[in-house]
Design brief:
Blueprint (H helix, E strand, L loop, with lengths): L1 E4 L5 E2 L21 E5 L6 E5 L12 H11 L9 H4 E8 L5 E9 L2 E12 L5 E7 L15 H15 L8 E11 L7 E10 L6 E7 L5 E6 L2 E4 L15 E3 L2 E3 L1 E2 L4 E5 L10 E2 L1 E2 L15 H20 L11 E7 L5 E4 L4 E4 L12 H15 L7 H22 L3 H4 L1 E2 L11 E2 L23 H4 L5 H12 L1 E2 L5 E3 L5 H15 L6 H14 L4 H13 L12 E2 L66 E2 L5 E5 L3
Parallel strand pairs: 17-20, 20-22
Antiparallel strand pairs: 1-29, 2-28, 3-4, 4-8, 5-6, 6-7, 7-8, 9-10, 9-29, 10-11, 11-12, 13-21, 14-15, 15-19, 16-17, 17-18, 21-22, 23-24, 25-26, 26-27
């Protein structure tokens, strides 16, 4: 028989009432607005310029002022009552003195999946911009569920085990369930249970599912274990200096100052942290492993270096910005060609014959670390364009951090150089099509697929190339737009970090990223020429229409090989040819398993992250049922 064990409390949107400190009365909202962009699928305003007469005089009243302004222009989003439909998720002032108000879209207290709005005030208090992903036509959704949470969990678990037969019999933990309004474009909105199911047995799996709260149909599901392809056949032999702790006569791989801790799983696939790496000498660590000797040293060292870079460059204290512990696990499983971020920590397999030790690659470790930053900031959902943007931000920050510590324009613009057997790198930002499978470099080559959560590891090549163009210049292989120079590594790093921490929402797509990068460039005080370069990069990759204002040329376009797309299986990676720029001297290669056959995708595959679910965006109350552990026993 099936047995479900209920442990803690179900989170509900009790926070939909006005938050503490925010009054119920609304100040007047004069002034006009200019719609800069509309959402490609919803048609609602996605980017709205503020008016000079909208001025924030008291930071504590930011939510009230924003709600009043939105109410005055509610027709732009199809809003009826802004006070009822907006819930404060976060209100904070950044290091530039700008204030950001992040809000969730709700229907009678129930949050809309991916529905969010961000208002930005400059240092003088003037409203400069509102960005949003706003689903229209949801007002009449019945928000009373007919299906219990327990029934929804059972439906989601059945679907998960149907996709992953090896999970049959494994215990599943149900994390932070929430009732939401699911309103994707092109289909009727529906009340749904959003649940995240984490496998607690021998297999790594974290699946998010949306189950119709009326019918029990599984409306959508996707794998939220977000990984980078990894192998480690042994440490590279480089000498590292690391911080450790002493306990009696034993040394432990604990950096107490940075809160960096490294564990070994001794070739097991388990859900816990494993065994703390220890040694009885300061000069020899992690030498008992059959494969990947010294991988713990690499993982620990890189976590420390990345922590220091984020602290020095962005004044960020650890992954969550609040000094949380940073955990790495090495020797994950036997012959596992992967490294991944699972929502709480970084893990590295020892690989087999395809790749080398990815724990030894600084940019790979920085990629995984950055997924944790994204989890705690924009929360980009790991699906379709937002998921590809999530992947791209990790690639970008991997490149930025490597450049900051080991500057080399050529090496820094590729991911995991020297990590693949027989190939020089894993991915290229300058030439995305040189990967294996190749990545698209332009929106006309966007891969439409149901695999890989909608192509998150393939389509990330488009924003990756935009980053390369805006940073060091170059030529896009499809549009043939050539940019003689970029804005440089430091400025580009600040633009992308600001995008991720203050300007993107969970459902942001490539167009939203382009708008956010322009806003970030302006906020950061970049010159007009530099702002034009940022915009031109997105024009070059086909995300933004128009002509470059920056100095750029367009070469005569050659006829590229036809691009295909996959919507129902097959190797979608091959569909992203993007002009056939592959070169024998740059064979590249992306060993991400998200687009490999099902047997190879069982652990989520590829470079990825575990983005924070939208339910973490608002203060949520515990009411009785919530975080549950579902236990299923075989008959």
């Amino acid at each position: 028989m099936r047995k479900w064990t209920w442990l803690a409390g179900l989170v509900a949107c009790a926070a939909c009432a006005p938050p503490s400190g925010e009054g119920s009365s609304l100040p007047p909202a004069p002034g006009g607005v200019a719609v800069a962009a509309r959402h490609a699928d919803y048609g609602t305003a996605s980017l709205v310029a503020g008016g000079p007469e909208i001025v924030l005089t008291t930071r504590e009243r930011a939510f009230d002022l924003t709600v009043a302004h939105v109410q005055a222009h509610r027709h732009l989003w199809g809003i009826r009552d802004a006070r009822a439909e907006l819930t404060l998720a976060r209100s904070r002032t950044d290091e530039l003195g700008m204030h950001h108000v992040r809000m969730r879209q709700t229907v009678r207290g129930v949050p809309v999946w991916l529905g969010e709005m961000l208002a930005h005030y400059d240092a003088t208090g003037r409203l400069v911009e509102i960005s949003a992903v706003w689903a229209p036509g949801v007002h009449d959704v019945d928000t009373t569920p007919a299906l219990s949470l327990e029934e929804a969990v059972a439906r989601a678990a059945a679907a998960m085990r149907g996709d992953r037969p090896e999970l049959e019999g494994d215990e599943l933990a149900v994390e932070r369930p929430e009732l939401v309004v699911f309103a994707p474009a092109g289909r009727a909105p529906a009340l749904a249970w959003h649940v995240a199911l984490r496998a607690l047995g021998d297999h790594t799996a974290l699946v998010r599912a949306l189950v119709d709260a009326k019918t029990g149909d599984v409306l959508d599901r996707f794998d939220d274990i977000q990984t980078i392809a990894a192998t480690a056949t042994g440490a590279t032999g480089k000498s590292r200096t690391i911080e450790v702790s002493q306990s009696g006569a034993t040394y432990q791989m604990i950096d107490a100052g940075r809160k960096v801790t490294t564990y070994t799983l001794t070739n097991q696939q388990i859900t816990g942290n494993g065994t703390l790496v220890t040694s009885n000498t300061l000069t020899s660590w992690d030498q008992a492993a059959t494969l990947g000797k010294g991988a713990a040293v690499d993982a620990h060292y890189h976590a420390e270096q990345i922590f220091d870079f984020y602290k020095k460059t962005f004044n960020r204290n650890a992954i969550d910005g609040k000094g949380a512990a940073i955990v790495s696990r090495v020797h994950y499983g036997q012959g596992v060609d992967n490294a991944f971020w699972d929502g709480t920590r970084m893990s590295y397999g020892d690989g087999s014959t395809r790749l080398k030790n990815l724990a030894a690659a600084l940019d790979v470790a920085a990629h995984e670390f950055t997924h944790g930053v994204t989890t705690n900031e924009s929360g980009l959902v790991y699906q379709n364009e937002s998921g590809a943007l999530n992947e791209s931000i990790s690639d970008v920050m991997g490149a930025v951090i490597e450049h900051g510590l080991l500057p080399n324009d050529t090496n820094n613009m590729v991911l995991g150089e020297g990590s693949a057997v027989g190939q020089p790198y894993l991915r290229s930002m300058v030439n995305p099509t040189s990967g294996s499978p190749p990545q698209p470099a332009h929106m006309t080559k966007l891969v439409k697929t149901t695999q890989d959560n909608g192509g998150v590891h393939i389509n990330s090549g488009i924003p990756n190339n935009a980053f390369a163009l805006m940073t060091i210049g170059g030529t896009n292989s499809v549009s043939k737009i050539s940019m003689p120079k970029g804005i440089g590594w430091d400025a580009s790093a600040k633009v992308w970090y600001r995008m991720n921490t203050d300007l993107l929402t969970t459902g942001s797509n490539f167009a939203a990223a382009a708008a956010a990068s322009s806003r970030a460039a302006k906020d950061l005080g970049l010159t007009q020429t530099e702002q034009d370069i940022v915009e031109c990069a997105w024009i070059a990759v086909g995300v933004v229409p128009g002509t470059c204002k920056a100095s750029a040329t367009t070469a005569p376009a050659s006829t590229p090989p036809p691009a295909s797309s996959s919507s129902s299986g097959g190797s979608s990676g091959a569909a992203s040819g993007g002009g056939g720029e592959a070169s024998p001297t740059e064979p590249g290669g992306n060993p991400d398993q998200g687009v490999a056959p099902p047997a190879q995708t069982s652990d989520g595959g590829g470079c990825s992250s575990s983005p924070r679910a939208p339910l973490d965006l608002a203060p949520l109350a515990l009411v009785g049922l919530g975080a549950l552990v579902a236990r299923r026993r075989r008959r």
